[in-house]
Amino acid sequence: MTVHAYAESTSCVQGGALRFHLTRASRAPLRGAVRVEDVATDRAVFDGEFSGPSWTLGVSPGWPSSLYRAVFAAGESSCEVHFVVRAARPSSPILLSMPFPTWQAYNRAGVPGESVYWTEQPTRAARVSFHRPGGGPPPERWEEGMIRWLGPAGYDVDYCSGLDLHEGRELLSGYRLLVINGHDEYWSAGMRDSVEEFIRRGGNMAVFSGNTCWWQFRLEDDGRTMVCYRDAVADPMATVEPGLTTVEWSSAPVNRPENGLTGVSFRRGAGTWGPYMRHMEEESYTVRFPEHWVFEGTKLGEGATFGRGAIGYETDACDFVEVDGVPVATGRDGTPPSFVILATADLRHWHRYGQGGMATMGVFTLGAGTVFTASTVNWGNTLHDPAVDRITRNVLDRLSRRVSGWEIIGTGGSMRALTVCDARLYGVGADGGLYRRDVSGQNLRWRRTGSGGGVVAMATPREATATRPVGLYGLTGDDRLVYRDPGEDASWTVLGDAPPGGVGLALVDGELWAATASGGLWRLPPEAAEWVPAGSSGDAVALTGMNGRLYAADAAGRVRTRLPLPGAAEWTDLCTASGVTVLTAHAGRLIGTAPGAPLRWRDPVPDL
């Protein structure tokens, strides 16, 4: 008497129609009741009847974009069919994707020839159809917690099926933030290409998921057949178009690690399966970068633990090393160099339960966009934890809108002068020492590398000229211009006098520029021996140069800019200085700090 049903598509637009196909194991008439419910609220939006082997649902234009389930009941039997209602036009900056490909991959797991699982069983299927019952959320409901949390938390989001991303460039263009939630393991090349292009062009992605983008699959039969051999030898595409072979994204012959999209991978992650899945409830994250905006408002300090149970049965991680107690991504596994590790969980003991490894929560930039990853399957089901709730809000709020401003990248170390030389950040501390650290968004420690030579402002040329080698140039408190090679054992050399009361120094095209406490701006041409007045400093308290332009932090708390012209020129207001009184620049970013303040950076663009 059991009734079975499936939908012709995993999503339908508001105001559209979705057709369902039904079968029954007996000869009894194929008729019964159907109810359609919004999974996010359990609210029924339709009650009616079906009769015969097909039934069409007219989707009201007023139904919210969400995940829905159609419950077909005949006698004492019933079945559920899940589908997404897409927004007819974007009504939110946030788009939440539902992992229908992963759900279909697990459908009828263990049944010979019916599922791409289990992984190494020779009876697994290489091709499965979306035209069959099942393919809905797994019993663990990894996605459900966040779906139910969003509305009450104040977030009205639009939904899509993961399959909608396969040719999703137009769909994604209407959104600011794509959210991946739960367990989104299977991605087609079209899905990945669309999402990567979206991010590179300035969109953002938040991955509240684990084991993300692990297997590549292909679509055939107008998108209704999912192909995943899991084996390059068996897949005929391996000799035709190797990049579309259905193996792990990181494996040959695809060789496209998912780290390039998510920053992390299950290769370095951990898993606990079967009877051992309960061990995930014992694990927590450890904070590694508490000053980062992701932790704002959590009151968590370095080394604090949070999110017990958020570490799901599968996690993702990047390869990293500890440098002075700070985790630093190595990039050896394909993780982008901009990846910043925010929290870690050491799960190497899980080798007894499935796969030992780590979990690394982080954030990085990809082109003009930003990607955050929680790196765990069960994040959305732990939103009752205050820290998990706050972090999720911070990510959604920041990445769903255009944001510019200063971002903390570590401790300021009470530096009174900054410059970048040989891609390393140098600072002169309040104690008179010279310190160094890599230019990175990671919260690295400063290392002492000699004497600061009494320097109060520093600059470095972009490239050497006949009169100015690449190195550290400084203004001292007793009005001298000094120079030092960047090597470990170098010493400072006096080059000559400097304008009195220097507070800022910049080097542009071999020409030195100095700002003084009295409000003057001075320049020293490459071949000259005397400083020449160049107008007003605009009340600068710090000065730097980048890409043929001067930047100054002024006494009013603003960053201003002007071209390095020989005579007087207007300073143009650019953005807030946010308390920065020490300034340098590198690779398109301003870098600054102040006594007792953290080290920050930002793009030199107007505030949004």
Describe the structure.
The protein is mainly β and 608 residues long. Helix content is 8%, strand content 39%. It is built from six helices and 45 strands. The strands form eleven sheets. It has a nine-stranded mixed sheet with strand order 11-9-12-14-25-24-22-18-19, with helices on both faces. The longest helix has 14 residues, at 386-399. It is elongated and about 100 Å long. The chain starts with a strand and ends in a 6-residue tail after the last strand. The model has no long low-confidence stretch (mean pLDDT 96). Residues 53-384 form the N,N-dimethylformamidase beta subunit-like C-terminal domain. This is N,N-dimethylformamidase beta subunit-like C-terminal domain-containing protein. It holds the Pfam family DMFA2_C. It comes from Streptosporangium fragile.
